[in-house]
Amino acid sequence: MKTKCTSKILSLILVMLMLIGITPAVVSAAQTGVTSDGYKYSISNGEVTITGYTGESTVVTIPETIDNCPVTKVSSYAFIGNTDITVVVYPKGVTAVEEISFANCTSLESIHLPYTVTTIGNSAFFGCTKLVNISIPQNVEVIGNSAFQKCEGLTNITLPESVKSIGGLAFAECSKLKTINIPEGITTIAESTFENCSSLKTIKIPATVTSIDQRAFSYCSSLSDVYFGGTIKQWNAVEIGVNNGYLGSATIHCQETSEEMFNIYFSNNRNWNNVYIYGYY
User: Fold this and answer.
1) Which residues, 6+ apart, have CB-to-CB distance to 102 below 8 Å?
2) Are the C-beta atoms of residues 56 and 76 closer than 8 Å to each other?
3) Which of 45, 175, 231, 249 counts the highest number of beta carbons within 10 A?
4) Are 166 and 140 in contact, with CB atoms under 8 Å apart?
5) Is the pLDDT of residue 15 over 50?
6) Distance CA 274, CA 191 (A)
7) What is d(CA 69, CA 175) in angstroms, rounded to the nearest whole number?
8) pLDDT exceeds 80 at position 11
9) Could you tell me which of 71, 63, 77 has the C-alpha nearest to residue 43?
10) Which residues contact 33 (CB under 8 A, 6 or more apart)?
11) What are the Cα distances from residue 77, in Å, to 50, 102, 170, 225?
């Protein structure tokens, strides 16, 4: 009797709500499917998330729409461990490369990201050993932890001025990386960011950097030149963590406004083997 009574009461409440113009919200499950060319997807609230790929093409151009709905996300793990794909083209509208989305895609050589991307997540390209070509869009602000770790094919990478944060281990074990420019505005080079980058020869560090965490340049045995955007006084004020010994054997290139300033701070140069001042030889 209680069950029948409760059911009647609920039915009565529903009718009353409809009479006064209130329609109860209906929660519908996300629509899922697979396109003819192998893209697994889900649709929720009119937006598409790519959740996986079963296609045979090695050149992956992710569609901008599915069932007339815009593709706005490629989920974490979507392509993880796919050893066949060589090229990936992201659609406009996607704002992030989610974490671990392409980890261990060992044949991936090139990826093309749209200007709408602002974040490259943790371990997004971890272990993509053949990745040699990636252009980071001008609106990217965050590069996550281990984002490009073990990308052994990278020889150089251009970071746009929009980047505000670079995570720990972001470029660790990129054994062919030879040069990199840290964007203006970065304040910290995180722990182990370039650890085991054994071919890294030159790096540009802006004057905005005030700390270099432990092991940031550990085992960077080829590091020969560090171009610092500030003065010797500013360089001496940078907090440098342990296990960054290869900074000490590199030539530190600083800017200075006068020879007098050089003379004042040269005695406090932390015993760097070489300090070069722009404009003085």
Assistant:
1) 79, 80, 82, 88, 108, 111, 124, 125, 128
2) no
3) 231
4) no
5) no
6) 24
7) 41
8) no
9) 71
10) 40, 41
11) 10, 7, 18, 38
pTM: 0.83
C-alpha span between 141 and 30 (Å, rounded) = 30
Instruction: Fill in the amino acid letter for 133.
Output: N
| CB crowding 40-62: b at 16 or more within 10 Å, else e | bbbbeeeebbbbbbebeeeebeb
Mean pLDDT (the chain) is 87
The pLDDT of residue 18: 52
Provide mean pLDDT across the span 252-279.
59
Give the integer Cα–Cα distance in Å for 226 and 180: 10
- What is residue 132's DSSP assignment? -
Rg (Cα) of the chain, in Å, rounded?
A: 26
Give residue 274's pLDDT band: very low, low, confident or very high (50, 70, 90): low
Using 50, 70 and 90 to split pLDDT, how confident is the model at 12? Answer: low
Measured torsion, CA atoms of residues 117, 121, 127, 133, in degrees rounded to the nearest 10: 20
Region class of 219: left (phi > 0), else alpha (psi between -120 and 50), else beta: left
The confidence score (pLDDT) of residue 255 equals 84
User: 158-172 pLDDT, tens per residue?
Assistant: 899 999 999 999 999
- Owner of token pair 């074990």: 173
Of 272, 202, 204, the residue nearest 232 (C-alpha): 272
pLDDT tens for residues 101-120?
A: 999 999 999 999 999 999 99
One-letter amino acid of 159: L
Residue 20 is predicted with a pLDDT of 55
Q: By C-alpha distance, which of 82, 74, 88, 132 is closest to 106?
A: 82
